[in-house]
Amino acid sequence: MRARIAAAAGLFLLAATAYHLAGASSAAAASLPTISFGVTEAESPQQVSTALQVLFLLTILSVAPAILLMTTCFTRIVIVLGFVRQAMGTQNMPPTQVIIGLSLFLSFYIMSPTFARINAEALQPYLAEEINQSQALELAITPMREFMFSQVREDELALLSEIAGDDPPAGPEDIPTMTLIPAFMLSELKRAFQMGFMIYVPFLVIDMIVASILMSMGMMMLPPVIISLPFKLLLFVLVDGWSLVVGSLVKSFA
Q1: For residues 84 and 234, what is the distance between their CA atoms, to the nearest angstrom?
Q2: DSSP 8-class letter at 68
Q3: What residues contact residue 147 under an 8 Å CB cut-off, 6+ apart?
């Protein structure tokens, strides 16, 4: 249920725009829809406006996945899980599809309170025709801004504001969303690399110990990775590494 709410709220912009353009009534639901493509001369300004809205919707559809992923916790999670795989030295185990899939479901889990707010405060009132499109978009972006503000660092905000030439903000409401999003992404990258460094340390120690033992035994031609890999896997299993990594990631957003 939480995943359905998160998915519906995460695609709110697309659903709201499609609902606005469709304008479908209950009577039209009984007929089969048809799709036709063509270029004809516009007879009124309203037809030009509708064509531009369709073009804008198609553009949003192409960039919506990137917008949703870059404004959520997905970036930090997928980078940290990638560091785990590299630190263990297991090449393609777990596969990239597994890492991305786990990152997506963890993102939905962490973002579910935010998506639930968007669904309750913006999507459902808009579908019920209680608010218009501009009000729905404003209500939808507010929870996302609050989430990004809870994770962004002041240094990144100051850097992006200085580059954009904005005046010093008096509060969070004075920071434009176009400044907040790249600052949030920079903060996520910084935290992800910090966590990746901490993950690398114990595996690096094992590699150094194994390499020193092999050199002392005169086995310089034997790659240390071949010997250290089973010990790294054993250490990771004994400490329940996946639970520790996932737990730390989820708690880092609290």
Answers
A1: 14
A2: H
A3: 72, 111, 114
Q: Is 198 left (phi over 0), alpha (psi -120 to 50) or beta?
A: alpha
Rounded Cα gap, residues 23 and 16, in angstroms: 11
Tens of pLDDT, residues 145-190: 888 888 888 888 888 888 877 777 777 777 888 888 888 899 999 9
What span, in angstroms and rounded, lies between the C-alpha atoms of 94 and 83? 12
Average pLDDT over residues 14-41: 45
Report CA 231 to chain centroid distance, whole Å: 33
- Residue 241 and residue 219: Cα distance in Å, rounded? 31
Whole-number pLDDT of residue 25: 37
Amino acid at 105: F
95 three-state secondary structure: coil
The residues near 178 (Cβ < 8 Å, ≥ 6 apart) are none
Terminal Cα distance for the chain, rounded: 22
User: Can you tell me the distance from the alpha carbon of 62 to that of 85, in angstroms, rounded to the nearest whole number?
Assistant: 30
Closest CA to 249 of 12, 130, 73, 43: 73
Neighbours of 94 (CB within 10 A): 15
Cis peptide before 168 (omega within 30 of 0): no
Q: Which residue has the tokens 């048809």?
A: 34
Interval 57-116: pLDDT, tens: 677 677 777 777 788 888 899 999 988 888 888 878 888 898 988 898 998 898 888 888
